[in-house]
Design brief:
8-stranded parallel β-barrel, alpha/beta, 8 strands, TIM Barrel, about 15% strand
Amino acid sequence: MSYTYKDISKMIDHSLLTPTLTVQELEAGIALAIDYDVASICIMPYYQRRCADLLKGTGIRASTTIGFPHGANTTAIKKMEAERAIADGCEELDMVVNISQVLSERWDYVREDIKVVIDVAHKAGQKVKVIFENSFLKDEHKIKLCEICSELKADWVKTSTGYGSGGATIEDLILMRKHAAPSVQVKAAGGVRDFAKMLEVRALGVSRVGASRTREMLEECRKVMGHPVLHTAPGTVAGY
């Protein structure tokens, strides 16, 4: 076995983004993610401050979304979203590219839209995951986005929001790992729903996975490693 439990748990960004989640469900989701010692919790922006407060001292990073899920906000609004998120304790910002401008191949606009959010985050010592929404794009668009994100020193390139017409595919993950700079990590979102798939994408060089089935995946990991079960009740259903 070439991994530890923490190697796997620290791949997971626990997703709490479904707009119908109640405050009680958000609180339960945060508690579950803390129990399993995930990498981060990606939560709806309005609950970011509360989430960040609960995560203090846990080693789990607070994250939220920018321009989510369509990427169509103006660059100025994305900048304001990023500034507010960081003020609320956000440590990782998951931003959506302007999909319309990508498909229009207006690369100067796309570059500036991404750059503004990265600049705000990096100035504050925080990180950015750039969401492509690959199901709407051609391979040449994905490659160009990888090149732009590498140039701008994004921290991750990410396959999808979970609200498009498809999620992460093995083909896309291979493509993104190939064309992003070694310093840029790859995040898979949508379609990674069990422990076996986590190991498969990990072998491709994926460092993070957006997940709502955190309990199920990490209980399977614990079982394989001979660790005690943490929860027997179903986990919180969320957004990817």
